Amino acid sequence: MRIMMIQPNYHAGGAEIAGNWPPSWVPYIGGALKSAGYENVRFIDAMTFHIDDDKLREIIRINKPDVIMATAITPMIIKAQATLKIAREERPNAKLILGGIHPTFMYTQVFSEAPWIDYIVRGEAEEIIVELMRSIEAGSDVKDRATIKGIAYLENEQVIATPAADPIADLDVLTPDWSLLEWDKYIYVPMNVRVAVPNFARGCPFTCRFCSQWKFWRRYRARNPMKFVDEIETLVRDFKVGFFILADEEPTLNRKKFTALCEELAKRKLPVLWGINTRVTDIMRDKALLPLWRQAGLMHISLGTEAAAQMNLEVFRKQTTIEQNKEAIKLIQDAGMVAEAQFIMGMENETPELIEETYRYALDWKVDMANWNMYTPWPFAELFEDLGDRVEVRDYSKYNFVTPIMKPDLMEREDVLKGVLRNYARFYMRKAFLEYPFIKDKEKRKYMMGCLRAFAKTTFEKRFYDIGRVHMRGGSMEVDLDFDQTRVFTLDEIARMKEEHPEQVADTTFGGAIPARYDPELIKHQAENDLNLPLEPAAAAEFGTRDTNKQVGC
């Protein structure tokens, strides 16, 4: 059976400024299929290779796959649906499968727009996809599908969703196949090295109202640190990876395992640097361990500081304070690592004063890097329940962190974008001439100058923040947000749509993914349980010993 995996050709001008990122779903899903005996698996990265529709048709026609699968986050969903339509036209009898966070919750709407899709995999897919593939291979999937957990499909024009599959209990059973990727194309521009995006942990116990990852993964789990470092060593040795970023929402939550991971990386002295996203509270908790993190090669820490005003932190349910943000940044920098602050912009209460305030915070905190991300009202996030009637723009292709979706009460969307671009220009101009060239730590200075080059390159090419949509006319800045007007609605249309088209509403029950209520004590317990006690010197032994067959020799 011939299986083709496709990354849709979608671009936004956000994370791509740092280079081409390997889609991590491919080695994990592909590895699960290969471990189950499906050897004829091919991956087409239409995004990285900028493969247009005509070329994709030709590839599908030549390869004649029996099963074609794609993935979709929200901004990619429209392109993913179109990609699978091409697949249906070229391979009428192939089975078409879509996975990812957006179709997991919005499967009813997806089927209303793309009925040519055979199956949607809901949630963590490695085990589900193998069961589904065995049924397809046997030719019995139509008969079996009601008994396969974690999928959705159309039957007699009715959408059927089977009960959710259980989260994978032990992530160490995962068997990623990194050879599916064409590594020469995945370059991290700041360091000009190959980049990987492996999984150490999945899930998050925190229930930030603007986020939905905690719903998707449903339970927090972390891998055996020794086995994970074995995987990193394989990436470095066999695929010449020089930088990796953990694809995890909360890699540092389990203090014991994350500390063991860092100790093992420090012991092996692998020629690789890495980055993470984490919470301010974990930095505060582990401040004594930060030098170990740096010794392990951790260079770049991105913090979800999120909001300028404490009011917004409370709206987002971040459980942090402005002062904690500032202190965490200093702790990271004192340990020799890069501290990046993330700000969420473009809420309905946005004002020019608040945009300016984020810039002042970035300066006051003396942060190494700052990111101003546009608030994206995921239709399956809790905050959307409060804002949904005000979300006029349902053009999901623009839900990309660089386009203002919400219409603030006191500003135009275009003015929010102008203010954010002004913040970027002032902040990085200051860094370029007054700070980065004078960093004393040679390795950190080299890294920061590389980041600056990445910003400059994508700005010149008008890819950064999609600035090709910004034009100067008569000395003033004009912005074309280029929304698909058929997906922009009035308040009356939204109200009518909710009544007449319930498929537009996300199914966020997902087998009990959402807690019955927000429970701060539960969050505190999960963040401070016995797994997170300070690590004793011999504690890492419980995770086993290193695989001596995995040696880089450095």
C-alpha end-to-end distance: 41 Å
Level of helix content?
Answer: 25-40%
Envelope shape: globular
Strand order of the largest sheet: 2-1-3-4-5-6-7
Q: Which short descriptors sum up this protein?
A:
seven-stranded mixed sheet, 38% helix, globular, 554 residues, alpha/beta, 18 strands
Written overview of the protein:
Helix content is 38%, strand content 15%. The protein has 554 residues and is of the alpha/beta class. The strands form four sheets. A seven-stranded mixed sheet has the order 2-1-3-4-5-6-7, with helices on both faces. Strand 6 (151-155) and strand 7 (158-161) form a beta hairpin. The protein is globular, with a radius of gyration of 23 Å. It starts with a strand and ends in a 27-residue tail after the last helix.
Give a short synopsis of this structure.
With 554 residues, this protein is α/β, with parallel strands linked by helices. Helices cover 38% and strands 15% of the residues.
